[in-house]
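From the pipeline queue, job 12 of 40. The input is one protein chain; the requested action is below.

Action: predict structure.
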Amino acid sequence: MKTLFLALYCCLYSFLACAAPSDTITVKVKDELDKPLKGLKLFVHSYPAFYSDAKGIHLLKVKEELEMPFEVWTDSKDYEIIKFSYYKDHKELLVKVKHKNTGPLTTQGKELKSFHENSSVSNNSKEQKTAHALNTATIPSVMTSQSLSADSLRASNTYEQYKGEFEQITHEIYLERERLVLNNEHIKDEISIITQRLDTEKNLSMAERTQLKAYLKKLEYEFEQNGIAFRKAEEQTKVLIDRLKMMLLEKDSINAITANKLKIEQEKRVVAEKRNTRSFTVFSIITLFLLLLAVSFYSIARKMRKQRSSLLLSNQELSEQKKLVEEQNQQLDIFAYRASHDIKGPLKSITALSALAAISVEDKEALELFKLINTSSVKLDNLVTEMLLLAKDSRSELTIFPVNTNNVVEETLRELKNIEGFEKMVITKELAPHLEILTDDTLFHSIVQNLIENAIKYSDKRKAQQTLHISTQLANDRFEISFKDNGVGIDEQFHEKVFASFFRNSSDSNGTGLGLYIVKQNIIKLGGTITLQSKAGKGSTFTVYLPMR
């Protein structure tokens, strides 16, 4: 009992406290150039490690909604995380990484230095400038409720540091551009002077011309290289601007998280308090319900035990009574069979003697009395015959084998052709050819015989022609045999009583009242049914339905 209550309580509590359904978050991994990075191993929060696919994407299945702050990291030897951004509404986590050999802005500083060294002209006027490697500190990728304000401050300091170094590099790029412009102007002037000398001074020797042309070619090459350096400097300036924009976005994101974190935590506390209150209320209700259920269950179980004991006693008594009734019925069947059989002999003698007396006696009054005796003897003989048949059918076991229904109908008609009223009946048949069913031949023969006799006994003598139509067919896997006559019919109020034992439609009937009762009992024994359609004065239709076995 206690185990049942405990299990029920656990199931209910688990149902109320069940976790939210799992969800999926799209994790996108990109490098410094915003290109998808394949095969990087990442860890998110407390979930198992995973690798990005060829498109730098992984679908992470989470058990509950991710809430900032949470941790994202990698154990890669080649890459480190620059930043990550979680877009809650779109279920998307964007992770930016960089190669550990290069800082986010150090490469740009080195390239600027390379620009200075490669873009100078041969007149030794270049200014050697040292590239300033920017600090490679990144914004923390781990953020907890305790370190939120510190992370925000640290991000702000990092931003200011990047901003100062960016301004310095930008200033150097500006000076370099100015130097390149002045250098190009100087080269243009020298090219113009040399070109003019080559065109105007005709006294130049061949060696001087060759030297001037070589110098002119060198100036043109340096002019072209300065242009390339100028364009490359512009491209790197754009890269630096993009990096600064990224830092601004990251700073804004962290500030927004910092501003909303307190509100989110407060909302979580309110939700948790409500949940705890609801859980306590539900727990109290469940406890009270279980107590009431336990009391009710105990009371019901006690009553059921008493009722079971009473039912067992009643069933035992009923079984004994049923056995006694079956024994008594069996004795009654034996008695009815023996009594009917014993009465049959004297009845035959009385019938024969009354018939002989009617022949030899000349007194009209005595002759009438002997006829009445003979008629009564015949009725009693029919009754005894049917009682013997009923007793025999009730005691016999079913013998199932294939029975040709058409043969049974034809054979029964031949057997009944000598009974009173048969010659006046116009009998028509509509029998399905070669129709066989698995049934008991004796019981089926008894059904057909009684229904034909019933139609003859209750034919309407007032009608010019008495008819009986017999038809057979198979329908819905059942055998149907129908007996339709135009006899006296049966009033609708007697339809339910017509199959009862010793029922007769009228006091003038010559029947015993057992024919239709025997029919119904035999049909039930064969697992079938019978229906009646009849109106007084219109005739009757009996339809028998038997299984095909």
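Job complete. Residues 206-360 form the longest helix (155 residues).
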